[in-house]
Structure formats: structure tokens, C-alpha cells
């Protein structure tokens, strides 16, 4: 099967040949040799330790076979079990492990337990962005310029993935970069609902059908449909506007599942980069962001759904299809390679065809094995280059700074982000009419563990502070709009009585609002009264000692995710854009620090906002 290049405005849909029997793609074993990493341990024992009860290869009855679908999601360019921000093996309080090398060891054991001929391996997206390894080979030493194989493509090829769906973060580095990565992948890369703008023609392969040989019977044909997230058109507007549109997941599945069945798929699996709660983080007319359960419920003919995007561990969820009454089994593996979803589907041969009679799923914890050394070797040189890069010194800090309290206090380390953004925008608009406007800047506490040590600050310290590959823009907002924006941001806090004990860590993330959606402004002064209801919390909003007028205009430094509508903040998406040079904020911080040579909070830290209760400061 070939992918239709998205660069063609109205391409001949070569992928249509996927419906033809001659285009079946047989599952083959990867040529990479691998050894059992746990000496003396059986595959079944390893899997049991990892939380998978296992199953026999043959289901009851001569005409039944159990096939196994494995799945990952939200790998976010984690190749090995390594934390580049700490310069050490990854560890967390739950004892999790990360990385494709760790996933490979579990996959090897499942294949050994079940038989390679009875297994397939899929991914549900967000694979190439999210770690220093990802940004290094996209922005620092781009593989598109060096001609190197992307480390995640190299590992996925070595493991032997059968199909990979596109996630929203695949679009972060632009369509040309995405094309380059897809061309390096042995697996089919799928996104049925990512279409050429103004058409219904998929810009990428919509589905693929794999075959599993069964002795004495016709092969079992397993179709997998790939679906990406509609939020792409918001979050990566600059990269896809006028080129790619993303259609509703339910409507797209309803269109393509019958096509797959007519093409001979006995089993239909959906790999969707979409959560399962039926809600969206954005507003407006865009299709539902987290629609996996809706797809299962509303589209007949689906047997299983591998989903992702939410970064949670969902071993099994059963959803009954409204039209057929049949159960659809869903699973989401925890992000970064911490879990592998494993679906067991019983397929029965009757009346000349195969069909699924039952299904179950679970997730396997990758901390029960160690990194596959063959997969580590695949990326060793690239990993070492990134380790060397992130340990490069950029400046000297006069004191230690931490983001540990940045979610409830105005901290110096977050003010540094705002200082860099403000300086970058000021330099860009110098000599223009907008230069007369006061500049304010928006930043959010992305990582509570971020620190700048006293003394030498390295790139990994900066990367730990600014963990997303956002770019910088500047828009114009009025005073009234800034107040609305701040009121919306303040929903991050629970309502706290004026006399309640001071316990700020228990006040945050109200309504499951993530830290990255708590925006803080520099350049204006204000209080957040958490004793008041949401919508009536911003007090004392002022600029240079005077109350901010409703019609007063400000130039606002903001990242592309927020300006494009990410998080659903008011006014910013429709605000006039004055500056958009596609400057990566993390790299801007590194450059700014390197040019200055020193980081001194006395130069930029201003405590311009605070939490209050009934007018009294909390701290």
C-alpha cells in the first residue's frame, strides 16, 4: 500500500487500491535478532509478573483461533529508559519504566508466548515529539537536513510495527518533516480523517489489511483504521492551515469500516489518537477531541479500539454498539512506553468466513523487563549525541531557582520565561506602530520539578523548564479581554474558605485542569481571590500602578498552542497576530541565556500577582 503525498492538491487516491485483494500485506517477522533478556524466565512468567494473565494460542474448538493485538500510544520520542532532564535512568514514585527499548522486550515475550504468526503490533500516535531526543532531531540536528534515519523510525522498524496512526503531535514540526518520517517507516502510517483541505480525500493512508495464515483454513484478514485528533487544526494551525483538515472520528469511521469489511477484513481494529470521555479541551465547531468510546458506540462493525492521547492506563473498557448490541473492547496503554495494551480476540471460522466471537484486553507494565539491548543499540549514537547536547552549559545562575511552588506563587524561574518572551517580542516590533503598546507575557507552570541550580545552567535545565516545542507569537488584547482571560485561568483553583488551613498543593487542578492550563501574566499586577466563585476572582488588575482600562490595548507574548485555541482560553484565538516568526521558545531561552552569560533574578523577577482570600494575601 502506498501513501498519498499530502503535497498534491487533489491527488489520485492511490490508497484506494487497499480495497483490492491483491494488496493484502502479510505480517512478517522483523529481521532483527533478539535474545531473551530475563535469563531463565519463561515468557509466560515474565508476562504474568507484568500483569498479563496470558492465554492459550488455540481457542476452544477446531474452528477457533485466538489472535493477539498489541498496542502502544503516546511514546513521545522516548527511545530508552532515560530521563534527559535528570541525566539518569527514568524513575518515578510508582516504579514505572519508559521507552521503546523497554516495550520491545515485552513485545518479544508476547510473541514468544503467543506465536509471532498470531500477533500484530500497532501504535495510536504521538510518537516523534515530546522528549529532548525528539526536539534534537527535529530542530537542533534535523534528520531532514542530515539525511539520518529518525531514531523512532529506526526503532519501530527494528521492533516490527505493523501499523501506526498519526497523533496530533506528529504535525508539530511541519508536514515536510512528517513526510520524511513516514517515508522512513516500514509500518503503514494511517490517518483516515486527515484530509486535503477542501476535500474528503485522505492525505495519508486510511487503513491497511494484514493477513494471518491459519493451517488448513483461509487466512484471517485483520484491518486497522487510523484516526487522528481534530485538535490538530487548532494546535498546529500554522503547519496545516489551508493544507490539512481533520474530520470527525465517528463520521470517518462510519465511512471507512464498511469499506474495510467489503475489502475482506474479518477483524476490524481502530487505532485512534483520541481519548474516550466524549469531551474536548477546545470550544467551537470542531469535532469531539476524545471520541474513542463514541466511535465504538455509534459505528457498527468494529471489534477493538486501541486509543491514546489522554496519557492514562486503561486496561479494558467494554462499550456496547448501539446498532448491533455487540461489545467492543477498548484499551489505552499508559504513555511513554510505560504500558503495552494486549488484546485477545477469539476468531471463529463458520459458513466460510472468520468472525470475532469474543474479546478482552489488558495492559502490561514494562517495568517487569529491561531494555532490549538490540533496540538500545539501534539508537545508541543518537542517544549519546542528545545526552552530550543537553549537558552543554549555557549560563551561570546567581542563585538556585525552582518551579516547585510555581502553581501558586509568582516564581523567579517562571518569570524568566516571561522575561525572554517579552524581550524577544520587544526586539521584533521595534520601529513598528505596535512598539508603543505595553508588552505583557503569558507563561504556565509546565513542570513543577524544573530547577535552575546555583552556578552552571545547562540546556537540560532549560528543557526541563520548557518541555513543549511551542513557538512564540504576539497578539493584541484589551484590558477587558485580559481580565476575562485571567478569570478563565483562575478556574484552576478550588474555592477555598478565607480561614481554611494554608495547603496550596490541595487547591490546584480544580476540575482536572492541568498545570499547563494555568496561565500567569507578567507586566500587569493582579490578585487571584480563591475564596470567590469562578468568574469573580481577579482583583486589583493594574498596569504601572493604575487600574487597567477596559479598552486599553496590550501586546501579549503567547505560545502558539494557546494562541491557536489550545485550552479554550477566551479572546486569544481571534486576537490580531502582530508577530509570528516561528521562533521556538525553548531555543529562545537557551539563546537568551547564552548571550547574557548570567541569570540573575534581580534583573527580571517581579512579584506582580498573588493568591488572596477575601482580599488578604495567602502568603
From TrEMBL:
Matches recorded under SUPFAM superfamilies: 5'-nucleotidase (syn. UDP-sugar hydrolase), C-terminal domain, Metallo-dependent phosphatases
Keywords (A to Z) from UniProt: Hydrolase, Nucleotide-binding, Signal
GO molecular-function terms, A-Z: hydrolase activity, acting on ester bonds; metal ion binding; nucleotide binding
Annotated Calcineurin-like phosphoesterase domain residues: 68-312
Gene3D superfamilies given in the database record: 3.60.21.10, 5'-Nucleotidase, C-terminal domain (3.90.780.10)
InterPro entries documented for this protein: 5'-Nucleotdase_C, 5'-Nucleotdase_C_sf, 5'-Nucleotdase_CS, 5_nucleotidase/apyrase, Calcineurin-like_PHP, Metallo-depent_PP-like, TAT_signal, TAT_signal_bac_arc
Single biological process term from Gene Ontology: nucleotide catabolic process
GO cellular component: outer membrane-bounded periplasmic space
One Pfam entry name: 5_nucleotid_C
Superkingdom of the organism of origin: Bacteria
Domain 5'-Nucleotidase C-terminal: 395-572
Record's keyword annotation contains Glycosyltransferase: no
Family under the similarity heading: Belongs to the 5'-nucleotidase family.
Designated name of the protein: Twin-arginine translocation signal domain-containing protein
Amino acid at each position: 500500500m502506498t501513501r498519498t503525498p499530502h503535497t498534491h492538491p487533489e491527488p489520485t487516491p492511490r490508497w484506494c487500491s487497499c480495497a483490492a485483494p491483491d494488496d493484502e500485506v502479510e505480517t512478517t517477522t522483523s529481521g532483527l535478532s533478539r535474545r531473551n533478556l530475563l535469563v531463565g524466565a519463561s515468557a509466560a512468567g515474565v508476562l504474568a509478573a507484568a500483569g498479563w494473565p496470558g492465554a492459550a494460542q488455540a481457542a476452544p474448538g477446531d474452528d477457533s483461533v485466538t489472535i493477539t493485538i498489541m498496542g502502544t500510544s503516546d511514546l513521545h520520542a522516548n527511545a530508552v529508559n532515560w530521563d534527559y532532564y535528570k541525566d539518569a535512568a527514568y524513575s518515578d514514585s510508582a516504579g514505572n519504566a519508559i521507552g521503546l527499548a523497554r516495550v520491545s522486550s515485552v513485545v518479544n515475550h508476547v510473541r514468544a508466548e503467543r506465536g509471532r504468526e498470531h500477533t500484530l503490533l500497532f501504535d495510536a500516535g504521538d510518537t516523534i515529539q515530546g522528549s529532548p531526543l525528539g526536539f534534537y532531531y527535529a530542530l537542533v540536528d534535523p534528520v531532514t537536513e542530515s539525511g539520518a534515519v529518525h531514531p523512532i523510525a529506526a526503532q519501530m522498524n527494528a521492533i516490527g510495527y505493523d501499523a501506526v496512526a498519526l497523533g496530533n503531535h506528529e504535525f508539530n514540526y511541519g508536514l515536510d518533516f512528517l513526510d520524511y518520517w513516514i517515508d522512513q517507516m516500514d509500518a503503514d502510517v494511517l490517518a483516515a480523517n486527515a484530509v486535503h483541505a477542501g476535500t474528503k480525500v485522505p492525505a495519508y493512508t486510511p487503513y491497511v489489511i494484514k493477513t494471518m495464515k491459519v493451517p488448513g483454513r483461509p487466512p484471517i484478514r485483520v484491518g486497522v483504521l487510523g484516526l487522528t485528533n481534530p485538535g490538530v487544526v487548532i494546535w498546529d494551525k500554522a503547519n496545516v492551515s489551508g493544507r490539512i483538515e481533520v474530520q470527525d472520528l465517528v463520521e470517518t469511521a462510519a465511512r471507512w469500516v464498511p469499506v474495510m469489511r467489503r475489502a475482506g477484513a474479518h477483524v476490524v481494529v481502530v487505532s485512534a489518537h483520541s481519548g474516550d470521555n466524549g469531551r474536548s479541551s477546545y470550544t467551537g465547531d470542531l469535532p469531539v477531541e476524545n471520541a474513542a468510546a463514541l466511535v465504538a458506540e455509534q459505528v457498527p462493525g468494529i471489534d477493538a479500539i486501541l486509543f491514546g492521547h489522554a496519557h492514562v492506563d486503561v486496561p479494558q473498557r467494554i462499550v456496547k454498539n448501539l446498532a448491533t448490541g455487540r461489545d467492543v473492547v477498548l484499551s489505552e496503554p499508559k504513555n511513554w512506553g510505560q504500558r503495552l495494551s494486549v488484546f485477545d480476540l477469539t476468531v471463529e471460522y463458520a459458513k466460510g468466513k472468520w468472525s470475532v466471537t469474543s474479546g478482552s484486553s489488558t495492559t502490561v507494565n514494562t517495568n517487569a523487563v529491561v531494555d532490549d539491548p538490540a533496540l538500545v543499540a539501534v539508537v545508541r549514537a543518537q542517544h549519546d549525541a542528545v545526552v552530550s547536547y543537553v549537558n552543554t552549559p549555557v549560563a551561570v545562575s546567581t542563585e538556585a531557582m525552582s518551579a516547585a511552588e510555581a502553581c501558586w506563587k509568582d516564581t523567579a524561574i517562571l518569570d524568566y520565561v516571561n522575561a525572554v518572551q517579552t524581550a524577544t517580542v520587544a526586539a521584533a516590533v521595534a520601529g513598528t506602530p505596535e512598539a508603543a503598546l505595553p508588552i505583557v507575557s503569558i507563561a504556565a507552570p509546565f513542570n513543577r520539578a524544573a530547577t535552575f541550580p546555583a552556578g552552571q545552567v545547562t540546556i537540560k535545565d532549560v528543557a526541563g523548564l520548557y518541555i513543549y516545542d511551542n513557538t512564540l507569537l504576539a497578539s493584541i488584547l484589551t484590558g477587558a479581554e485580559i481580565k476575562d482571560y485571567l478569570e478563565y485561568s483562575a478556574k484552576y483553583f478550588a474555592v477555598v474558605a478565607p480561614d481554611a488551613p494554608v495547603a496550596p498543593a490541595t487547591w490546584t487542578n480544580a476540575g482536572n485542569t492541568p498545570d499547563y492550563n494555568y496561565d500567569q501574566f507578567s507586566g500587569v499586577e493582579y490578585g487571584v481571590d480563591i475564596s470567590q466563585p469562578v468568574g469573580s476572582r481577579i482583583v486589583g488588575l493594574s498596569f504601572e500602578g493604575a487600574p487597567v482600562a477596559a479598552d486599553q490595548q496590550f501586546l501579549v507574548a503567547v505560545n502558539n498552542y494557546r494562541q491557536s485555541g489550545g485550552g479554550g482560553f477566551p479572546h486569544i484565538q481571534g486576537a490580531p497576530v502582530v508577530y509570528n516568526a516561528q521562533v521556538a521558545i525553548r531555543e529562545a531561552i537557551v539563546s537568551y541565556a547564552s548571550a547574557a552569560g548570567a541569570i540573575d533574578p534581580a534583573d527580571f523577577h517581579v512579584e506582580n500577582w498573588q493568591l488572596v482570600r477575601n482580599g488578604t494575601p495567602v502568603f
